[in-house]
């Protein structure tokens, strides 16, 4: 697999279908597919283009967020042997629809239930992070590493429900894009993230990146995250095991 070629296809899709619509969406190009869940023409068109170009490059099944919304049975592909492209065409659609640049494209390549490569492309600054299993996480030729472990009062992170963790750490927030949370983790801009909604297009690529950048990613019971098995539950990502052990009782 030429991971750079995939990154190029993702950039091309963003330049063709996403960026031309950013800050230019009309009301009829933004819809609510479920309560508090938006979809735009950019989501739909980018996913269609990526589905075609990625399967032309490497044939396999596709689990795309918008296609699964229309046909949930497509998720079953992750439960069978073979190649599966997992696509989130616009992660952070709410931000995108509200002219906030904190959105991204996420693509993961899952083979026989294992994520072997992942890409997160941030279209506005045109930056892409790539991870391959056993090969590290990279951006523009620079190998990425998670932040160093620090004491709880110095930690910053992303959580949806503040709970007890907010009283123990320096700062917590959630700003509408799992992709950007992962980018912040693997570039050392934040120490931890906690998620409760675990759709594979949001997390398969990012978990691989976190691990390849030297961090810890595990379900709240300590078991590994597996895109085939986990659509619900709690996922905690930290720089190291000591941080994970400290944070897990606070976010659970």
UniProtKB/TrEMBL annotation:
Which SUPFAM superfamilies does this entry report, sorted A to Z? Carbohydrate phosphatase
Annotated Gene3D superfamilies: 3.40.190.80, Fructose-1,6-Bisphosphatase, subunit A, domain 1
Query: Which superkingdom does the taxonomy of this entry point to?
Result: Bacteria
Q: Which residues form a coiled coil?
A: none
Instruction: Identify the keywords attached in UniProt to this record, alphabetized.
Output: Hydrolase, Magnesium, Metal-binding
Q: Does the keyword Ligase apply?
A: no
List the PROSITE patterns: IMP_1
Which InterPro entries does the record associate with it?
Inositol_monoP_metal-BS (IPR020583), Inositol_monophosphatase-like (IPR000760)
- What does the sequence similarity comment in the record state about its family? Belongs to the inositol monophosphatase superfamily.
Annotated protein name in UniProt: Inositol monophosphatase
Species annotation: Magnetospirillum sulfuroxidans
């Amino acid at each position: 697999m030429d991971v750079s070629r995939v990154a190029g296809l993702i950039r091309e899709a963003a330049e063709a279908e996403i960026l031309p619509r950013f800050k230019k969406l009309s009301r009829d190009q933004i819809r609510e597919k479920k309560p508090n869940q938006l979809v735009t023409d950019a989501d739909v068109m980018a996913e269609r283009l990526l589905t075609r170009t990625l399967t032309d490059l490497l044939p396999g099944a596709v689990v795309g967020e918008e296609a699964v919304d229309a046909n949930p049975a497509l998720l079953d592909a992750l439960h069978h042997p073979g190649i599966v492209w997992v696509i989130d065409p616009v992660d952070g659609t709410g931000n995108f629809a509200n002219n906030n640049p904190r959105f991204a494209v996420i693509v993961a390549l899952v083979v026989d239930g294992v994520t072997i490569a992942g890409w997160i492309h941030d279209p506005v600054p045109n930056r892409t992070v790539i991870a391959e299993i056993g090969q590290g996480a990279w951006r523009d030729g620079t190998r990425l590493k998670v932040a160093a472990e620090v004491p709880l009062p110095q930690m910053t992170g992303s959580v949806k429900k503040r709970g007890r963790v907010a009283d123990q750490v320096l700062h917590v927030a959630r700003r509408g894009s799992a992709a950007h949370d992962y980018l912040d983790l693997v570039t050392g801009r934040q120490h931890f993230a906690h998620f409760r909604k675990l759709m594979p297009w949001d997390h398969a690529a990012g978990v691989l990146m976190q691990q390849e950048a030297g961090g810890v990613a595990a379900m709240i019971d300590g078991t590994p995250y597996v895109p085939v098995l986990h659509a619900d539950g709690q996922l905690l990502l930290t720089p190291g095991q000591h941080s994970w052990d400290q944070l897990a009782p606070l976010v659970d």
